[in-house]
């Protein structure tokens, strides 16, 4: 959350050489739901006049304790009876249960009061909804289908474990996301929030459920795609931007993955779904934290001085991708991408651009203007001849290569998500948390990447005897086909997973050798 959210996105095609560029992605943690006893032997009670949890014993325990006290008062008690009395009292103090109370202690020590994030009592999510299948998971939370008990209506529930909110900034990010979604409630083409709930373990956001799939998937599935259709989609996207800006909200992470169709119908609405990086913004207010997704990030964000105009740039990149199937500024590393964003030439001449209308190219030039002051506003974009209702976007099908590129774009992203899921499932929650914290520590510039030397230093902390060639071998994985000067979090995790496998193999070899010797 917050300032470290540089996310790599889908693969792109170099339109000049027709080669694939493989970007990388920050790994998405797979949170594990804590398993707590249904009826803990000790009930934690929070009193208004006391911030410390108090323990309440059950009626049976109190009776046992009273009997123990009465027994203590009896004369002539033997030493054995006294010892038994002490044991009974100790069992009562521990909840009269064989289960160790460390889970309760962990929750108490973590300071997870029910109102610590939302600052208000919300009731328990499961009082109102039944949780169903998992829809997906991201860096900070997991999304489930949930059914409202009173109506049977289905919604999406995004659950954010509090253990992932490591500081006050993370907590503020969650609060702000909920506030912004409530602020935008009822606006067209923006996902609706139904409510927010908080308990001792997580914050839950109940939202409108979109089952129609991602933007690129829909285009590829339908098979028929024209400039006019692209113009219609562009109008929806810019409508969201205009709505946000008019209400004092800057999105900061516009990209195709953040738009979903509500259902499978041909005329299904397209809605913006993710406001995790969005900010409230006042007229003339500028920001300096570097956030977003590299292919869609505006140059002024990289220069750490930007405002809402950055959203127009990102939307312009989306239109470019919709019309060509590739990104306007690409590279094999984040550094190369950023250099292209800052200084690269905008290609509107190679295939398939000769078949695209001049009006569309004119709009893209004006949206991808590097000077934010000269860039079109959302209102001006919506008034452009190519995008307005009576616009001049042709209805002729776009070149078949565009659909093929979009298909590859979408398929590669799915494979990448599967790979990430495999990585995550091979690590325990504790290992992921530890590695994430380690990566954050050495990533001092919050760029989402660390140097090769820093990686080597981290691996050496695992008490390994790996030399440079060994580490190079670790990095020659599907996650990094070409060894680079820096690695991102995903590659970092992949290297550590591979290292763990090697150490396990070594341990098995030693065990096998010892067995043979015996």
UniProtKB/TrEMBL annotation:
It catalyses: L-seryl-[protein] + ATP = O-phospho-L-seryl-[protein] + ADP + H(+); L-threonyl-[protein] + ATP = O-phospho-L-threonyl-[protein] + ADP + H(+). Belongs to the protein kinase superfamily. Ser/Thr protein kinase family. CDPK subfamily. This is non-specific serine/threonine protein kinase. Residues 129-387 form the Protein kinase domain. Residues 430-465 form the EF-hand domain. Residues 46-74 have a biased composition (Basic and acidic residues). ATP binds at residue 158. Pfam families: Pkinase. It comes from the Eukaryota. It comes from Brassica oleracea. Residues 29-102 are annotated as: Disordered.
